[in-house]
Amino acid sequence: MSLLLHGGQLYADGVIDFDLGRLADNFWALTVDGLTYGAIYALVAVGYTLVYGVLRLINFAHSEIFMLGMFGQYAMLMLLGFYPSGNAFDKGVLLTVVYLCLAMIGGMVVSGGAAVGLERLAYAPLRKRGAPSLVFLITAIGASFILQEFVHFVLPKLTGGELGGVNAQQPIRLVVPTTQFTIFGADVTNVDLVIIVAALALAFVTDRFINATKFGRGIRAVAQDPVTATLMGVSRERIIMLTFLIGGVLAGAAAMLYTLRVPSGIIFSGGFILGIKAFSAAVLGGIGNLRGALLGGLLLGVMELYGQAVFGTEWRDVVAFVLLILVLMFRPTGILGESLGRARA
Amino acid sequence: MRTARRTTGGVALALTAILAITGCSEQSQGGDEASGGSSESSSAELAIQPLIQIDAEGAEAPAAETSSAADPAGDGSATCDGVAIAMAGALTGPNAALGTNILNGAKVAVDKHNAANADCQVELKQFDTEGDPQKATQVAPSIVADDAVIGLLGPAFSGETKATGAVFSQAGLLSLTASATNPGLTENGWTNFFRGLGNDDSQGGAVANYLTGTLGAAKVCVIQDDTDYGVGLAEVVTETLGDAADSSCSAKVKTGDKDFSATVEIVKSAEPDAIYYAGYYAEGAPFLSQLRAGGVDATFVSDDGANDPEFVKQAGDASKDAYLTCPCGPAPTDFATEYEDSSGQAPGVYSVEGYDLATIMLAAIDSGVTDRDGMVAFVKDYSGDGLAKHYEWDATGELADTTTWIYQVK
């Protein structure tokens, strides 16, 4: 593939555009959008990174935990009496906020429960038998398929076609994105604000929980040295469950925030790509490193949108993964380095 | 540590609550600023409704007179014995709706025919391909092997038609499709293949002319997905639009994408008069709703891949006023009633084509055709009106006159 510099634009056999003007024109708008997606990636990435830190396991089923969270918050809204409609429900600001919180709790409960259930049903028995790490990996991939196909084929039968199936759920809209203010010409909507602020708050709470509480100390201890931690009276099994729970709960919250932004995204296959991106974010920041996951998420979210503007919109995933490879070439343990950061100290 | 163990569960729950509450308080912060966050609800139920029929130049073409349409009942004196027509397409699986629309349309025609002609009972045999080329190649031999089958309505999709074309061509079995629109299908030298609607080239050209003509768009962003269908359609539309197609805001999306931020920002800063989306509703609907959420008000035009009630369900309010085209015609009222009586649901895209094409095959049987060769010869020379349009084919198996219907979400 020959690259020719042609009239200020690079063409690679006409396949890849190279257009810095598009990036310059939309820089701030892309930054705002990128931060909202990055914040969601970051929350999901925490689940990958914590489990890796404690178990040295890439939980590939985490993307499906996220997907179940989307259905969880949707089901919660239906239980609250909402129904799919083309129109947004006009409940006033205060009630809308209350309903969004309840929806988020619905997502958290389903995702958190599913994550712990997955741990108990799929991973704990393997651990008990001392299975090699590859078996865990295969199990994770298998669990991922099972959960997807459950929502694809079984859930619609259980719910009389209300949930799951081949099509995306018809959106329930509580909030219509409306511009609140502009930064350098980029519109910032209420949805952008809610996502970024809620995600950062959750990230902060998680960071404090891991670094400043007794349970967080337990997680860090098991991550650092499981044997010694056990000798010191830390129950490894409980810490593992707690880790899965935190990861699941954050994925559930992220799922609710994601559906604010992408209302038609609630579909059985809807977690897959996002999960891989979140996993990449975790590796980018340094897997096993909580703050690395947050940084990696935000960075990936912003960079892939910049990349789309420069190289063309179809190259989103390629940009994300090339970025990952480039960073790993120069910093093989990710930007902030592997391990639960200062936790090891 | 013992207490810690016992209380882990409880604290975990408390953590959940804390996380939730933090999320809540932050949301209320965002929400307070979102005083205009809730929109007024409009009560009208949105639906895809036929607007006008256009020709290749994008000018209005008068709709077919339904009074002159061929009647599957014939004169009621036909005699035949042991003949059947087959229908092949997706009857189960993710795309079952389209195959079912065609099958139910054909059923109306066959039932009408059999009720009127006591001495000529034609059987309608159904073959499910799930719309999957691989499955279709497994099903095709059993259709060919059934000696009673002298004509085939289908296959329904372009991919499966391409995969099975050689088998039907070798068997000399008429293959009359009500929905496969890939232009390349008539370039294989199959003498048994006829297309009962315009192909993607004719649809793309007509809609591009309609965009610049009737809709008066001077700057159009063409967005395409990564399927053969979307890519082919976008190419024709871009070419026909000429200078009106702005390459700086053309973009490509991928099957399965649900989030289109960068595309929306690029389109937004280009400030086009119209956006053309070549692809299916699964991506088109969320794309449109994100365009509207992003403040892009430009006219939205898409194709028959998006022309599905699911498009309106997914995009909701955002789909209002969107234009959706289709080489398929809307169902006349009388036909819609018969269809609903017969199948218990409203006719969908290609239902009318299914009825019209089955009617043509029934007319062949009534005229005395008893074998596959006779059926192909009959269709080759056929000229007559149906409910949707005038049917008459050129040497390649394309309709001599193609028209495109413009629908609008209202």
Oligomer: heterodimer
Roughly how many Å is the radius of gyration of chain A? 21 Å
Domain count of chain B: the total is: 2
Tell me the CATH topology of the largest domain in chain B: Rossmann fold
Looking at the overall shape, the CATH architecture of the largest domain in chain B is 3-Layer(aba) Sandwich
C-alpha-based Rg of chain B, rounded? 25 Å
Count of the separate structural domains of chain A: 1
The residue-averaged pLDDT of chain A reads 88
Shape of chain A: globular
Structural class of chain A: mainly alpha
- Tally the helices of chain B: what do you get? 12
Q: Beta-strand percentage of chain B?
A: 15-25%
Morphology call of chain B = elongated
Membrane topology (chain A): Multi-pass membrane protein
GO molecular function, one term (chain A): L-phenylalanine transmembrane transporter activity
Transmembrane segments (chain A): 35-58, 65-85, 97-118, 130-147, 193-210, 239-260, 266-287, 294-312, 318-337
Family (chain A): Belongs to the binding-protein-dependent transport system permease family. LivHM subfamily.
Describe this structure in words.
- The complex is a heterodimer of chains A (345) and B (410).
- With 345 residues, chain A is mainly α.
- Helix content of chain A is 68%, strand content 5%.
- In chain A, strands 1-2 form a two-stranded antiparallel ribbon. Chain A has a two-stranded antiparallel ribbon with strand order 3-4.
- The longest helix of chain A has 37 residues, at 92-128.
- Chain A is globular, with a radius of gyration of 21 Å.
- Chain A starts with a strand and ends in a 15-residue tail after the last helix.
- Residues 1-13 and 341-345 of chain A have low confidence and may be disordered.
- Chain B is of the alpha/beta class.
- Chain B has 2 domains: 70-199 and 329-384, Response regulator (Rossmann fold); 201-326, Response regulator (Rossmann fold).
- In chain B, the strands form 3 sheets. Chain B has a 7-stranded mixed sheet, with helices on both faces.
- Chain B is elongated.
- The chains are: A mainly alpha (345), B alpha/beta (410).
- At the A-B interface, α1, α3, α5, α6 and α8 of A face α1, β8, α7, α8 and α9 of B.
